[in-house]
Amino acid sequence: MQDVTTDGSSSAQPAPRHDLKPSPDHSGPAYPAPADLLGRLRARAGADPVTHVERVPARAGEPAPWPNWAPEELRAAFARRGVVAPWRHQAEAATLAYDGRHVVVATGTASGKSLAYQLPALATLLADPRATVLYLAPTKALAADQLRAVAALELEGVRPACYDGDTPRAEREWIRKHSRFVLTNPDMLHHGILPGHAQWSGFLRRLTYVVIDECHTYRGVFGSHVAHVLRRLRRQCARFRSTPVFVLASATSGDPATAAGRLTGVPVTAVTEDTSPRGGVTFALWEPPLLPRDSAADQQADLTQVRRSALRETADLLADTVAEGVRTLAFVRSRRGAEVVAANARRSLDEAVPGLGDRVAAYRAGYLREERRELERALLHGDLLGLASTNALELGVDLVGLDAVLICGYPGTRASLWQQAGRAGRSGQEALAVLVARDDPLDTYLVHHPEAVFGRPVEATVLDPANPYVLAPQLACAAVEAPLTPDDLALFGDGAKEAVDQLVAAGALRQRPTGWYWRHRERPEVDLRGEGGAPVCVVEAATGRLLGTVDGGSSHFLLHPGAVYLHQGVSHVVDSLDLADGCALVHPEEPDWSTHARDVTSLSVVSVRSYVDAGPVGLFLGEVDVTSQVVSYQRRRIATGEVIDTRPLDLPARELRTVAVWFTLSPQSLTAAGVEPADVPGALHAAEHAAIGLLPLTATCDRWDIGGLSTAAHPDTEAPTVFVYDGHPGGAGFAERAYGTAAAWLRATRDAIAECGCEAGCPSCVQSPKCGNGNNPLSKPDAVKVLDVVLANLPDGVPAPRPSGDSPGVPSVSSPGGSSVSSSGGDVAVPGRRAVREAVLPGGPTVPGERVAPDDAAPGGPGGPGGAPPSVVETGSGAAPVPGGGRQA
Question: How much is the pTM?
Answer without folding.
Answer: 0.71
